[in-house]
Design goal:
The complex is a heterotrimer.
Chain A (H helix, E strand, L loop, with lengths): L8 E12 L5 E13 L4 E5 L6 H9 L6 E8 L2 E4 L5 H10 L1 E4 L11 H11 L4 H14 L16 H13 L5 E5 L7 H16 L3 E5 L3 H7 L2 E4 L8
Chain B lengths: L4 H4 L13 H16 L5 E2 L13 H10 L5 E6 L6 H13 L3 E2 L8 E5 L12 E5 L13 H9 L4 H14 L10 E3 L3 E3 L9 H4 L5 E6 L4 E5 L5 E3 L26 E5 L6 E5 L2 H9 L10 H9 L1
Parallel strand pairs in B: 2-3, 2-4, 4-5, 5-8
Antiparallel strand pairs in B: 1-9, 6-7, 6-10, 8-9, 11-12
Chain C lengths: L2 H11 L6 E10 L2 E11 L4 E5 L6 H8 L7 E8 L3 E4 L5 H11 E4 L3 H4 L6 H11 L5 H14 L16 H13 L5 E5 L7 H18 L2 E6 L2 H7 L2 E6 L2 E7 H6 L4 H8 L5
Parallel strand pairs in C: 3-8, 3-9, 6-7, 7-8
Antiparallel strand pairs in C: 1-2, 1-4, 4-5, 9-10
Helix pairs in contact in C: 5-6, 5-7, 7-8
Classes of the chains: A alpha/beta, B alpha/beta, C alpha/beta.
Chain lengths: ~240, ~300, ~270
């Protein structure tokens, strides 16, 4: 893990503007001039009204959206890797080992069992089959997903159940960095509390997080810092 | 020039020595020399129209015609027998066009032309065996494209041949190929030894004689020079085995020659006799006898001789 | 240099070498530029998807980089076992054929092109072993049984002929045949094209598992964006022979930069 003085994420002058070539070439600026450093045990919550670009910002940090300008440096194996310029194999390595992303939606190959889906991040990192499945079972149990569901593909689950599978995938490993996009959106109070517990445990273990939380309670429970996104909003 | 009735009724036309013209013989000899220089490699040659159609031994006849001379002694067998129709007619053909002595005794022959068998009597230095070959390409059954098989030979890519042996074992528990059993020549080229029974494959290995293979329809000649390594394909756990019989030759009692099965009547009676007729008669003359010695078959053979 | 820069420099130095490196590859057919100036590097464990519509040049590109067709310009360098990093077209034909057999796999869209339809399934799967000198029947047979299980085929069909199998089963035999010799790079040409959707799903997952377990590098050509999203880590988007856009799959599909890519992505039906 990093030393106390080294931030896990360094964001420099990050900005994103979309260009819709087939929409008459319209440009949609979203945000710009974002500079930010995040250290271990910090959970920076992106705050602001819906539509302001919180999700876009998060995705730009992950590399899911290509930043238009600026750098996102992630501490990976002791070295900073710039997400916006790194070669693909490096980016894939960073995502596999260092930076996880909890999205709002579960998008996976159909017909694959829940257990297998949850175990995948471990298998991708070389964990033995038995151990990976055992840990998957443990994390699903802690998220109160019924055992009967484990061998079924999540396609027919409720929104909340799918989301818990999503969360299980992201918390089965100790990612040094976690990006969370409305992870508790479709969960009831009890399950929200469980997720809060998982987040706090991960933070205590040294993770750095950036998150978007719809729910005030959750936000208050996990945030160490709030970042109002409005200040980075670009004029259209 | 008109040909009179008298002229066209002449009993013998004027053929070149051994039927083929000198240019053709030269071309075939070159192919043979190249084949001997590259054991097992199929040399294309300009196969000619012969007095028998393709499929009746034209390749063997052309090879013999190119190498035969007035001092040679010629033997011809068809599946081991000197007295079948085809063996007789080819023997008489060369007697006529090459003016050579002929024989049924393997040890007296200088050239032995054969369809589908190698004589039991071990061939010696100075003898030439000419085998008739229907399909010279051992890979044809699995790979129809000539372009591909040529590349496979050139690059020594013979894995595919093991595929057919593999399947044989999977289906029958053993390699069931009985004739035309593929063999590696000089550790380099894969050849089919023509449809001789696998029983005869070991005779090609390290022979003192020259072995020539002619395929007239497919227009290929290949050869195994004396003292050449010829290994039949097999697997480590399924080694190459030759055929064996529980029976012995009914006429001469031979225990180690290749036996043909002869059906005697409609009641399922049969007998096993040496495929190599000369080998059998030599043994009988020496006093050996099998369980059915004196059978009509033996008498018929002697009558033909 | 400060500590951070020094660390970065160190990271650059120990960067892994690419398995496949394509540089400036071009191929013309008469006046038509089927491929223009294509370049990319591929690392072990990466699945590269080459996507584009019909006529985009992706099949030509695949043929050129898999050694089937020499390009008119450019280089295809592969880290061969025997000769190190070499332009595959600088190798002699026997060496190139041997490398293709021993270090690569090629899964065709149509099993007919990738299997011997009249040989048994087991023989098909064992053939690469025999090509590489395998001469022990029992061991090879055991290996094919293992692989049959691995690709989720019923072992009772081991001695069946692929021409009697379903399309999905034929593809599984093809996959087994192309992996049994432990290649490092596998080319796939629309491997699930023409199969039922449910069959596709299982096959794709099988392929992902195998890629992970064997640390394979894969070049996957497909016109199906859904397959690309599921299988590929990164994409090369082709149009009229040129690479129009490249990047991680989720980035190219969620945030396409180029006009053509935006058009392509927006045209895909979402179910």
């Amino acid at each position: 893990m990093s030393t106390q003085s080294q931030p896990l994420i360094i964001i420099e002058e990050l900005g994103k503007t979309f260009t819709l070539h087939n929409g008459g070439g319209a440009t949609i600026p979203v945000f710009g001039n974002l500079t930010l450093q995040i250290e271990a045990r910090e959970c920076v919550v992106l705050a602001g009204p819906s539509g302001i670009g919180k999700s876009t910002l998060l995705r730009s940090i992950y590399g899911n959206y290509l930043p238009s300008v600026g750098a996102v440096k992630v501490l990976h194996h002791g070295v900073y890797v710039d997400i916006s310029t790194a070669p693909p194999y490096k980016l894939l390595e960073v995502r596999r080992r260092t930076m996880g992303y909890v999205s709002q939606f579960l998008r996976v190959i159909p017909r694959i069992s829940t257990l297998q889906l949850v175990a995948e991040p471990l298998l991708d990192n070389g964990v033995a089959l038995d151990e990976a499945y055992a840990r998957a079972e443990a994390v699903l149990t802690s998220l109160q997903l019924p055992r009967a569901h484990w061998d079924l593909p999540p396609a027919t689950f409720s929104g909340g159940e799918q989301q818990r599978v999503n969360i299980a995938r992201s918390f089965i490993r100790n990612y040094p960095i976690l990006l969370l996009d409305e992870p508790t959106a479709s969960l009831d109070a009890e399950n929200r509390a469980i997720v809060v517990g998982l987040i706090r445990d991960a933070l205590a273990a040294g993770a750095a997080m950036i998150g978007i939380f719809h729910d005030d309670e959750v936000r208050e429970a996990v945030a160490t810092r709030q970042l109002p996104v409005a200040q980075f909003k670009l004029a259209a | 020039m008109t040909v009179t009735a008298q002229q066209s009724n002449q009993p013998t036309q004027q053929y070149n020595y051994a039927y083929l013209d000198e240019q053709t013989k030269r071309m075939i000899r070159r192919a043979i020399l190249k084949a001997l220089a590259i054991p097992g490699y199929q040399v294309p040659f300009g196969s000619r129209e012969m007095p028998v159609p393709y499929g009746w031994g034209t390749g063997g006849i052309q090879v013999t015609a190119a190498i035969i001379g007035p001092d040679d002694v010629f033997k011809c067998i068809d599946q081991g027998a000197d007295d079948t129709t085809n063996a007789v007619s080819i023997r008489q053909f060369f007697a006529k066009v090459a003016d050579v002595a002929t024989t049924e005794a393997t040890s007296e022959a200088t050239i032995v032309q054969s369809r589908h068998r190698i004589p039991e009597k071990t061939l010696k230095q100075g003898q030439i065996l000419v085998l008739q070959v229907p399909q010279p390409e051992p890979l044809r059954g699995l790979e129809a494209r000539e372009t591909e098989t040529r590349a496979m030979h050139a690059y020594e890519e013979y894995g595919v041949k093991y595929v057919s042996l593999y399947q044989s074992i999977a289906a029958h528990g053993r390699i069931t190929t009985g004739a035309g059993y593929p063999a590696m020549v000089n550790q380099r080229y894969l050849m089919t030894p023509s449809p001789i029974p696998k029983f005869d494959n070991p005779k090609i290995n390290q022979s003192d004689a020259i072995m020539l293979f002619g395929a007239g329809r497919e227009k290929r000649i290949y050869a195994v020079p004396p003292h050449t390594d010829v290994r039949s394909l097999d697997f480590e756990d399924y080694p190459f085995e030759i055929q064996s019989w529980e029976e012995i030759c009914a006429l001469c009692g031979s225990e180690d020659s290749y036996l043909d099965e002869v059906v005697l009547d409609d009641e399922g009676n049969r007998m096993f006799v040496c495929s190599d007729t000369h080998h059998c008669s030599v043994r009988r003359d020496a006093g050996h006898a099998g369980p059915l010695a004196g059978h009509a078959l033996a008498t018929a053979q002697e009558a033909a001789e | 240099m400060n500590a951070l820069a020094q660390q970065n420099a160190l990271a650059q130095q120990v960067a892994p070498a690419p398995l496949l490196s394509v540089t400036g590859l071009s191929k013309r057919f008469g006046n038509v530029a089927a491929c223009s100036d294509v370049s990319f590097d591929l690392y072990p464990g990466e699945v590269l998807g080459i996507v584009g519509e019909s006529g985009s040049g992706k099949t030509t590109l695949l043929n050129c980089i898999s050694g089937r067709m020499a390009p008119d310009a450019g280089e295809v360098a592969f880290a061969t076992r025997r000769f190190g990093l070499s332009d595959i077209y600088s190798l002699s034909e026997p060496d190139r054929r041997r490398m293709q057999r021993e270090e690569w796999g090629f899964v065709h869209q149509n099993a007919r092109d990738g299997l011997r339809m009249r040989a048994t399934a087991s023989a098909n799967v064992a053939e690469p072993l025999m090509n590489m000198g395998g001469r022990h029947y029992g061991k090879m047979r055991a290996e094919t049984e293992k692989w049959f299980n691995r690709v989720e085929l019923d072992p009772s069909r081991l001695d069946g002929q692929p021409r009697l199998f379903s399309g999905g089963m034929q593809q599984r035999v093809q996959i087994a045949r192309n992996l049994i010799h432990r290649p490092r790079l596998v080319f796939m040409d629309e491997p699930t094209g023409g199969l039922d959707v449910s069959v596709q799903a299982r096959l794709l997952d099988l392929m992902r598992e195998l890629v992970r377990d064997l640390n394979l590098a894969v070049v996957l050509v497909t016109h199906d964006m859904a397959v690309a999203r599921l299988m590929a880590d990164r994409l090369l988007v082709m149009k009229q022979g040129k690479v129009v856009e490249t990047g991680l799959t989720d980035q190219v599909l969620d945030d396409p930069q180029q006009p053509y890519t935006q058009l392509l992505v927006s045209s895909v039906l979402q179910i």
